[in-house]
Write a structure and sequence with these properties.
The chain is α+β, with helices and mostly antiparallel strands. It contains five helices and six strands.
Length: 231
């Protein structure tokens, strides 16, 4: 007796058939996509109207405009009440009275006019006197004749004595506040140069009482006359 067939080969054959069918279906689908058969089949199945609806673009939504606001109806204004017409009051008639008889006015004598007093014009006040100018400061000139100064007389040049030269020399000297002569110059010449130079050198060696302005010692110029006379 032969043994019954095992179920394992049957299952294997069934799996092989299923796998082969799936592979064949995929191969057939790929071939259909490449040749366009699948697209034609889809176009035949889907109606033309459905395709048109799918292709037509969607219309934009139109928002309806809000209705205009209803006009506000104002209540009618009340009519003003008519004012009552005032009746004119009766005017009283004036009572005529007899006019009084005119009385002659009493005329008073005119008063005498007051005397006119003419006053003399008041003299204008005299302008104030201008202030007196300040007194000039007292100036004291320098001096060379004080006894305590011991100033010697200028020597007479011997040559001038032999030649008979004589005359008056005026020397202008600048006296400092300490009583010394800082510079000197001939203001009036004697006509002889030897006499002029002798007087100039002499006054530069003398001592002096300085000049003063308002009691204060001040340096200033001073003229000194010197006479050269033959005896």
């Amino acid at each position: 007796m032969s043994s019954p067939s095992s179920p394992q080969p049957r299952r294997l054959n069934r799996r092989i058939l299923v796998v082969g069918a799936v592979v064949g279906f995929h191969v057939l689908a790929v071939w259909a996509l490449q040749t366009g058969l699948l697209r034609r089949a889809v176009e035949m199945v889907i109606p033309v109207q459905v395709l048109a609806e799918m292709i037509e673009p969607a219309q934009p939504l139109v928002t309806p405009e809000p209705p205009p606001p209803a006009p506000v109806v104002q209540p009618p204004k009340p009519r003003p009440k008519p004012r009552p017409v005032a009746r004119p009051e009766p005017v009283p008639q004036p009572v005529l009275q007899p006019e009084p008889s005119p009385v002659a006015p009493v005329v008073a004598p005119p008063e005498p006019a007051p005397p006119v007093v003419v006053s003399a014009p008041t003299p204008a006040p005299a302008p104030p006197a201008p202030p007196a100018p300040p007194a000039p400061p007292r100036i004291e000139l320098p001096s060379s004749s004080a006894d305590y100064l011991n100033n010697p007389r200028p020597p007479y040049p011997p040559l001038s004595k032999r030649m008979g030269e004589q005359g008056k020399v005026v020397v202008r000297v600048f006296i400092e506040t300490d009583g010394t002569a800082s510079k000197a110059e001939i203001r009036t010449s004697s006509g002889y140069d030897r006499l002029d130079q002798t007087a100039l050198q002499t006054v530069l060696r003398w001592r002096y009482v300085p000049g003063k302005r308002a009691g204060v010692a001040e340096a200033m110029w001073f003229n000194i006359p010197i006479n050269f006379v033959l005896e």
